[in-house]
Amino acid sequence: GDSVIQMQGQVTLSENDFLFINCTYSTTGYPTLFWYVQYSGEGPQLLLQVTTANNKGSSRGFEATYDKGTTSFHLQKTSVQEIDSAVYYCAMRESGSFNKLTFGAGTRLAVCP
Amino acid sequence: EAAVTQSPRNKVTVTGGNVTLSCRQTNSHNYMYWYRQDTGHGLRLIHYSYGAGNLQIGDVPDGYKATRTTQEDFFLLLELASPSQTSLYFCASSDNERLFFGHGTKLSVL
Hints:
The complex is a heterodimer. By secondary structure, chain A is mainly beta. Chain A has strands at residues 3-5, 10-14, 19-21, 24-26, 31-38, 45-50, 56-59, 62-65, 75-77, 86-94, 101-103, 107-112. In chain A, the strands form three sheets. In chain A, strands 2, 5, 6, 10, 11 and 12 form a six-stranded mixed beta sheet that branches. In chain A, strands 3-9-8-7 form a four-stranded antiparallel beta sheet, with no helix packed on it. The mean pLDDT of chain A is 91. Chain B is mainly β. Helices cover 0% and strands 54% of the residues of chain B. The mean pLDDT of chain B is 95. The chains are: A mainly beta, B mainly beta.
């Protein structure tokens, strides 16, 4: 079945460090890929999405490229700030799936000042 | 901004108890979802719906029922609650693009 794999449960960085969070996916179809962010005490919210393979999505300084060849959708940011501390989820929606989203396990990012 | 409201925000029950979690959205969205969030598992889909009277089974449906009474209202029912259902539950709605989540309901089953 469809799956989304995030191996990094926790990432700790200092301000201005480079962020890279791994995400790989498995599906037989043509997915749309998302990154959601969840701040403490809130529900997740959309950070960015990419519909077309080999395209890049970007938002608030974050970027992710959908690589169909390696089935990866990594999230990166050049210089993180303390306000970026949150849990980041990779998610996938397969085409024709009644808009069903499958989420990864999440990566908790802690940015120290 | 889209609005999804969950109630209650916190709930404590005992094993075998009967619990109903409520969700209302005022976005006129067709799709609604129930997820549970657990450390190490992320967000797992329990049930979802694409309109009043419709129900789709998610990835972890055992022990849960759901009902979509109107376009706005989606309920999650635990008829015989167990400690393994202690979790943070999120409801979401969608216009077939992004999901809009509520603030969550923290359920503890003792």
